[in-house]
From TrEMBL, chain A:
Residues 83-310 form the Solute-binding protein family 3/N-terminal domain. It comes from the Bacteria. Gene3D superfamilies: Periplasmic binding protein-like II. This is Glutamate ABC transporter substrate-binding protein. PANTHER family: ABC TRANSPORTER GLUTAMINE-BINDING PROTEIN GLNH, AMINO ACID ABC TRANSPORTER PERMEASE. Belongs to the bacterial solute-binding protein 3 family. It comes from Kribbella sancticallisti.
TrEMBL record, chain B:
The keyword Secreted does not apply. Residues 1-34 are annotated as: Disordered. Keywords: Membrane, Transmembrane, Transmembrane helix. The keyword Membrane applies. This is Secreted protein. Residues 7-22 have a biased composition (Pro residues). The chain crosses the membrane at residues 53-73, 220-240, 247-270, 417-436. It comes from the Bacteria.
Length: 324, 444
């Protein structure tokens, strides 16, 4: 018995010593996914000025002829550069979006840019459309004025006091208002009915500030662009989107299961073209262009083409306010 | 008649009951005369007993040597086999990586075109994704340790492909939201899929290096086992020579020679296999690795070229990424050595086109830049890149085949000591038994 056990034991030992042929490896380590820190939206910026809509009054007299900008002016520099560099959105349907079929970026905001280019060059195509996101709007305008820097931003930007401290605005070119977009099967009409639910607004936008002001109990979710919100909405990650009626109209047009609620706009969003605060001559020039557009019907034509059909409100060009 | 009542002469055949005559199993009388000794102790008693102990000790050492030799060979053989398997796995993983970045380059490039994708590009995208999916399941079967990470990768690919298809569906309808889905898809690939692939590549590279280093380790078993065995056998021979006054016990000496031969032949062949493995590691394998890295970086650059254009002027980050990837390609191609001359030329041709694209875009001629980026004519980004892709793919296939066959040759060159080791040990043990029992005979 003992012998048998001894033999068995030594055989086991032998096999153990020789049977190292099959090595098992440690499992491949799965990289730890860095979850982005939960972004708590910055508190709404203080709005402490009397009338943010006040811009710089254009100089009296007609505009200089296209292609002959006054020497030393910002417009002359743009003319020398050969094209107007504009920061725009490429995914806000009807405001500034890339037409996937033609590849061209088009919309109401883009028409404003082209009008400015027309006034400087006599050619509305001398523009370089630079796609930027919502949070990039102010930084690109504050960047040093090197050749190729963004001259003007037309990206459904609301004029307000806080932004006036960093950039300069043209006179108001459109009066929008913030609304709510929900799933077509939802009964909610206002933000107040969405406490505890996830609602999306673009990061760094006034829509986000207004939403938190309107109902602090909604769970804010941000995306880089308005369309980013629509993707989250389609993926069921948020139940509603809040934003300017112009933007929401474009989004609802892309998704038949989205509905803009009938509640009236809960904020006024006056749109202005953003420019560098030091280039006041350019702001005055742009204001003159806008005045002419509103007067000669180009503004209305553009509105009727892009915004009229989906907003179903008659076009009234906002009157400019000057005095800054 | 004189009665001689003397005791009758003992018959010639008579013999006293001597212990020698009794079969070893019937040692009962001895134990009876010396009751303090157990049967086993008695067997090891006196000089013959010590000889028996020597026999057992030497035989055990000889068998253990056989086992050690077998173990040494199996460990080297196993290391070579595993190096081969792991290299195949690494090539597989890098092929998954290449297919994914290539699919992504197609997707981003066709986005510049719009909803109406070129059918060939679409087909290439589908093929790349299919190949990647097939390779993922192959890789999971080949290396169980990679299964979890590959499973994770698979789920990110599902997300990626889903987003791409949604982007296409929306693009096809002319809805701008398609671009957002494409952006999200690209982000999923970059942030979720590629880190997993990097982890897989790193893990497999580590495994390969471990195995390459392990090829020479089998020699330690053989040399250590051989040295100990030879010392023990020589000591045994000396001890026997002193007890028996004979110089050399021939069978035991033969066993020692057998052990020595095994050590010399086995050691030499193991060293040469280890050297062959080192050569492969330094050349064919290093080149395979460099070229697949170059290809991955190249596809990454291609995607970034499209993304720079899609970003329309705010794509500085993508262009910076292009510059970094392109430098990686240059560096890795340089590692590949002189054989890559033509490959470097095709890559330079693509780079030249990219420089033109950047110049157009930077000077505000975005449409011209896009035409060069999405066209299929001779001096377009797609055409020059395809040339590089084809050439580098062919060369990569060759290199990885060379690596595999070199490792397999090194393994085939090993003598079959992995299997013969134990029989050799047993043979030596039998020789020892024979040698000692010759001396034991003299005590019968």
């Amino acid at each position: 018995m003992k012998k048998k056990r001894l033999i068995a034991a030594s055989l086991t030992l032998l096999f153990a010593a020789t049977a190292c042929g099959s090595t098992t490896y440690e499992a491949t380590q799965i990289p730890v996914k860095q979850t982005p820190p939960v972004s708590t939206p910055a508190p709404p910026a203080k709005q402490d000025c009397t009338n943010p809509l006040q811009s710089y009054a254009p100089d009296p007299g007609p505009l200089s002829a296209p292609g002959a900008m006054p020497t030393g002016s910002t417009m002359a520099k743009i003319q020398a550069h050969g094209r107007l560099v504009a920061g725009i959105s490429a995914d806000s349907l009807n405001l500034g979006s890339r037409n996937p079929i033609s590849g061209k970026i088009e919309g109401f905001d883009i028409d404003m840019i082209r009008a400015v280019a027309e006034a400087i060059f006599g050619d509305e195509n001398k523009v370089e459309l630079r796609v930027i996101s919502s949070p990039q709007r102010l930084p690109v305008l504050k960047a040093p004025r090197t050749p190729g820097a963004v001259d003007i931003v037309a990206r459904n930007m609301t004029i307000n006091c806080a932004r006036w401290k960093e950039i300069a605005f043209s006179a108001e070119y459109y009066r929008s208002g913030q609304k709510l977009l929900v799933r077509s099967d939802m009964k909610a009409e206002t933000l107040a009915q969405l406490s505890g639910q996830k609602v999306c607004a673009p990061a760094g936008s006034t829509s986000l500030d207004n939403m938190i002001k309107a109902n602090p109990k909604v769970v804010p979710v941000t995306a880089d662009t308005d369309t980013g919100c629509l993707v989250l909405f389609q993926q069921g990650k948020v139940v509603a989107i809040t934003g300017d009626d112009t933007v929401l109209a474009g989004e609802a047009a892309q998704d038949p299961y989205a509905r803009i609620t009938k509640a009236p706009a809960f904020s006024a969003e006056p749109y202005g073209l953003g420019m560098n605060p030091a280039q006041v001559d350019f702001v005055k020039f742009v204001n003159k262009v806008l005045e002419e557009m509103k007067a000669d019907g180009r503004w209305k034509a553009s509105y009727d083409k892009w915004l009229g059909p989906s907003l179903e409100v008659p076009a009234v060009p906002p009157a400019p306010v000057y005095g800054r | 008649m004189t009665q001689t009542t003397s005791a009758p002469p003992p018959p010639a055949t008579w013999s006293p009951p001597a212990p020698q005559a009794a079969p070893p199993g019937r040692q009962a009388p001895a134990s009876r005369t010396a009751p303090k000794l157990g049967p086993i102790a008695a067997w090891f008693d006196g000089t013959p007993g010590r000889m028996r102990a020597l026999l057992i000790a030497l035989a055990v050492v000889a068998v253990l040597f056989g086992a050690a030799a077998a173990q040494g060979f199996r460990s080297s053989d196993g290391a070579l086999q595993r190096a081969e398997d792991n290299t195949a796995q690494l090539v597989r993983i890098q092929s998954i990586h290449t297919n994914l970045v290539s699919a992504n380059a197609d997707a981003t490039n066709s986005f510049l075109v719009g909803g109406l994708e070129p059918p060939a590009q679409r087909q290439h995208f589908v093929d790349s994704m299919t190949t990647a999916a097939r390779l993922v399941s192959e890789a999971a079967t080949a290396q169980p340790a990679d299964q979890k990470a590959l499973g994770e990768l698979n789920s990110t690919l599902l997300t990626y492909q889903g987003l791409i298809e949604q982007a296409r569906a929306n693009n096809r309808q002319g809805l701008p939201i398609g671009s957002q889905y494409l952006k999200d898809a690209n982000a999923t690939l970059q942030a979720d899929s590629l880190p997993l692939l990097d982890a897989l590549v790193k893990a497999n590279e580590n495994r390969i290096n471990t195995e390459f280093n392990g090829v020479g380790r089998g020699n330690a078993w053989l040399l250590l086992g051989g040295a100990v065995t030879l010392v023990v056998l020589v000591l045994g021979l000396i001890w026997l020579a002193r007890r028996t006054h004979r110089y050399v016990n021939v069978p035991i000496a033969a066993a020692a020679v057998l052990v020595l031969l095994t050590v010399v032949i086995g050691g030499a062949s193991l060293s040469s296999a280890a050297n062959a493995a080192k050569d492969t590691q330094d050349q064919a394998y290093a080149n395979t690795l460099a070229l697949s890295r170059a290809r991955i970086a190249a596809y990454d650059a291609k995607s970034n070229e499209s993304l720079t254009l899609i970003a329309r002027g705010s794509g500085t980050a993508f262009q910076d990424a292009w510059v970094k990837s392109a430098k990686d390609v240059d560096d890795q191609l340089a590692i590949g050595g002189t054989t890559n001359r033509t490959l470097q030329d095709t890559w330079s041709a693509y780079k030249a086109v990219h420089v033109q694209i950047r110049e157009d875009d930077d000077k505000g001629r975005w449409d011209d830049a896009v035409t060069k980026a999405i066209g299929s004519g001779k001096a377009t980004s797609n055409a020059t890149f395809t040339t590089f892709d084809k050439a580098s793919n062919e060369q990569l296939d060759e290199l990885s085949e060379t690596t595999q066959s070199e490792l397999s040759d090194a393994r085939d060159g090993l003598p079959p000591i992995g299997w013969l080791g134990l029989p050799i040990g047993i043979l030596a043990a039998l020789l020892i038994a024979w040698g000692v029992s010759q001396r034991l005979e003299e005590y019968r």
